[in-house]
Amino acid sequence: DTAVSQTPKYLVTQMGNDKSIKCEQNLGHDTMYWYKQDSKKFLKIMFSYNNKELIINETVPNRFSPKSPDKAHLNLHINSLELGDSAVYFCASSPGQGRMNTEAFFGQGTRLTVV
Amino acid sequence: AQSVTQPDIHITVSEGASLELRCNYSYGATPYLFWYVQSPGQGLQLLLKYFSGDTLVQGIKGFEAEFKRSQSSFNLRKPSVHWSDAAEYFCAVGALVTDTGFQKLVFGTGTRLLVSP
Fold first, then answer.
1. What is the pLDDT of residues B11-31, one digit of tens each?
2. From CA A63, how far away is CA A20, in angstroms rounded?
3. What is the least distance, in Å, from the CA of A67 to any CA of chain B?
4. Cβ contact (<8 Å) for B105 and A104?
5. pLDDT digits (tens, 9 = 90+) for A79-109
6. 3-class SS of residue A97
7. Which of A4, A37, B85, B97 could pair with A88 in a Cys bridge, judged by C-beta atoms 3.0 to 4.6 Å apart?
8. Terminal CA-to-CA distance of chain A, rounded, Å?
9. Which residues on B lie below 8 Å from A92 (Cβ)?
């Protein structure tokens, strides 16, 4: 009964490939996010969706395309993978329409390695 | 712009000793503050949060944090550290994204806690 689940947990792929990471939450939250953790453990928001609508896009290259088929799912598709895309990608969700004073619940992360 | 500073990259504490992890934030409005913990190979788990009210907040696993507006700080404390507390700790501030009414979390760079026997 994992609250926020991501698949796969590990992903190793070659430069130039296209890959997707899936995220599902069973908390009934309206808002979902993608955060990226780089090799120095720095966490930064990439995208946020509220009820399937894109709310936040933090100047992420357009090779990254999030898709939210419904409010319980937020997938991340990455085209033409580059070495610099290697990172841990975290999905998260929050209640309360993602407004202020709400906490985020994180998934276990997907470690993407581009070789 | 909003930012969070965790000045200690790593800290080593003896098991049973007390712990304080420092966090300073920069945010123009009322801050919403969080501490998350990341165990090796795991996701982030919320330890505690401050939204308003009592400036000393209690969290899970025996952790507490104190909000000090005058110092722009939100330091995390634990009176007696256990070996299982070894992990990476992240302080974060909830920042309003302009023209959206929604927030994003702005994280510090983390502090790695090592626990010695």
1. 999 999 999 999 999 987 778
2. 12
3. 19
4. yes
5. 999 999 999 999 999 987 666 667 899 999 9
6. helix
7. A37
8. 34
9. 44
